[in-house]
Design a protein that fits this description.
- Helix content is 54%, strand content 9%.
- The chain contains 20 helices and 8 strands.
- The chain has helices at 3-21, 24-31, 51-60, 62-72, 121-132, 151-165, 176-188, 197-206, 223-238, 259-266, 278-291, 298-305, 312-329, 335-341, 356-367, 371-375, 381-397, 402-408, 414-430, 432-447; strands spanning 35-40, 43-47, 78-82, 141-145, 171-175, 210-214, 242-247, 269-273.
- Strand 1 and strand 2 (43-47) form a beta hairpin.
- The longest helix is centred in the first third of the chain and has 19 residues, at 3-21.
- 39% of the residues are buried.
Length: 448
């Protein structure tokens, strides 16, 4: 496939979205005849026939164009308009070098800090075995389980363990999103400082001893990146290099991935993480409390896990709420304090069903916003923070797929939802103001 065909393929996807967003007359006059000529720094370069057309696109349709690029989900972030012979509309941006910037490992994610119970002891043992003898025991190792059950913890524990005990081995841990973005950048970084981008990408992922990729279900329908990973997988596998993959479902259920990838995943060891039982939930919370230098009575821990879902992040959020209430009121943690903080009675009467709409309403009310502002594209700081908190609460209080959350929040993709969720979760650890905002809105939702 030539570069021109690649550009046209990307542009066709974007045009399909733009046609739905821009009125037909403007689309026909200014958008339809733009020609894709390049991709630079994840921006598609479009050639217009005249400066008048270029000016009209940039002044009247730029936001809709960017929305079309985002919703087309082709791995691009923006666009550039050029006109032959124009000094104003010319390409003055050079491709960035594709740098090797691996995901930074969280040193807290170790095997020692992973709470083992009946629900996860099999996958824990498999991960330990891989870390002790990479490429020798189970290859590939395929870990799957629901959100917040510990997949990422185990993946990074493997990488951290190998880094400490086998420092001569080259280990790469990355996410499916980062792998996809690097693939897109390498495919189109073809001149200037990006001349060798494609070969650097291939060498980076084929010359390692251990490759760990998190959440590969997000490659669904993206056949270019699947092809790139397929060749990297074969190269590593034939050299007996260790491959570890995680997903939210069994390999056989990844029907949107190519059959040849699924069969290779199934050829190794498939290990699932089951939802934790009551005892494991309590043990997890006890460890989390000790990490925060708090001693929480067992009766409070039992209360926190009662009627909770299986998401460890949700459990930790409940614990954070109680710890914050203890700090706020300068009271020791007790069953009464916990019940008050969570707006529940000790007997925990069943709450009315919580809906995404209720969370959106409560967030809008708290920040005095309209729904259109909350789910829209405006990037003012106060709107972004409110939007991220709303996303966090939907993920925390409900068990919706990330794709569904993205649709609810204005058609955002899964990577944006993951970033917002994790951003607020991290801020809640270090910023009491954010923690208070989240808890106040959650209380409002529970009272509705």
């Amino acid at each position: 496939m030539t570069e021109k065909t690649q550009f046209e393929f990307l542009w066709e996807k974007i045009r399909e979205r733009a046609k739905l967003l821009i009125n037909p007359i403007s689309y026909s006059a200014f958008i339809e005849n733009l020609i894709p000529v390049d991709v630079v720094n994840r921006k598609i370069v479009l050639k217009a026939e005249t400066e008048l057309t270029a000016k009209q696109v940039m002044t009247s349709h730029a936001n809709k164009m960017r929305e079309a690029i985002a919703t087309a989900d082709v791995g691009l972030a923006d666009f550039i308009i050029v006109v032959d012979g124009s000094e104003e509309y010319t390409l003055n941006e050079m491709p960035d070098a594709v740098e090797e910037t691996p995901v930074v490992l969280d040193k807290r994610y170790t095997f020692d800090s992973f709470v083992v119970g009946s629900s996860n002891k099999f996958v824990y043992a498999a991960a330990k075995s891989v870390a002790e003898a990479p490429g020798e025991n189970f290859n590939p190792l395929y870990i799957y389980g629901g959100t917040g059950l510990g997949k990422t913890h185990l993946m990074q524990a493997i990488a951290n363990e190998i880094a400490v005990k086998k420092p001569t081995l080259k280990v790469i841990y990355t996410t499916s999103e980062k792998f996809l973005n690097e693939y897109v950048d390498s495919m189109y970084g073809k001149k200037g400082s990006g001349r060798e981008a494609d070969s650097r990408f291939r060498n980076r992922y084929r010359n390692v001893d251990v490759l760990l990729i998190d959440d590969i279900q997000f490659w669904a329908g993206k056949y270019g990146v699947q092809e790139a990973f397929f060749h990297a997988f074969n190269e590593l596998f034939t050299q007996h290099k260790q491959i570890v993959i995680s997903s939210d479902c069994p390999a056989k259920d990844l029907t949107t991935l190519e059959e040849r990838l699924r069969t290779r995943f199934e050829g190794g060891l498939i290990a699932d993480i089951q939802p934790p039982d009551l005892e494991t939930k309590i043990a997890i919370l006890k460890r989390k409390a000790l990490e925060k230098k708090y001693v929480v009575p067992d009766e409070v821990l039992a209360f926190l896990v009662r009627n909770s879902d299986n998401n460890v992040r949700t459990l930790e959020g409940r614990l954070n709420t109680v710890i914050f209430a203890s700090k706020l009121h300068e009271e020791p943690i007790s069953l009464k304090l916990a019940a008050t903080a969570l707006q529940e009675s000790i007997n925990t009467e069943e709450q009315e069903e919580i809906t995404p709409e209720a969370i959106v309403r409560a967030t809008c009310s708290y920040f005095s916003l309209n729904k259109s502002d909350l789910v829209g594209k405006n990037k003012r700081q106060e709107l972004v923070r409110a939007r991220q908190i709303c996303i966090y609460l939907i993920c925390d209080m409900l068990t919706l797929p990330l794709v569904s959350v993205g649709k609810l929040m204005g058609g955002r993709d899964h990577s944006t939802i993951i970033y917002a969720r994790d951003k607020i979760a991290e801020l809640m650890r270090v910023n009491d103001a954010v923690l208070k905002e989240v808890n106040d809105i959650k209380s409002a939702v529970l009272k509705q």
